[in-house]
Design goal:
Length: about 80
């Protein structure tokens, strides 16, 4: 049986780069961690104070919505954490 011809493939050569790679500019985000931790702490403290004082503090007129305010601070902390690099 005759042998089949082996075709030689050319080595891959990437096309010439039209643009130079741009350097990634990292900004100083040292404010993110303290703000994130502060929002977490404020939210936690808000909820704890609400339950310890039986709803008379931090804002009595909000009644049970004080829990939502506390979780709002915590959610804002998570939103700020997305900026951390």
């Amino acid at each position: 049986m005759p042998k089949s011809r082996i075709r030689k493939k050319a080595d891959y050569t990437p096309p010439p780069a039209a643009k130079q790679a741009t350097a990634i500019r990292l900004t100083n985000r040292s404010w993110v961690a303290p703000v994130m931790l502060a929002l977490f702490a404020i939210g936690l403290a808000w909820i704890v104070v609400f339950f310890v004082t039986d709803g008379t503090m931090p804002v009595e007129s909000l009644r049970n919505w004080n829990v939502a305010v506390g979780f709002g601070f915590i959610a804002a902390g998570f939103a700020v954490s997305t900026q951390w690099k």
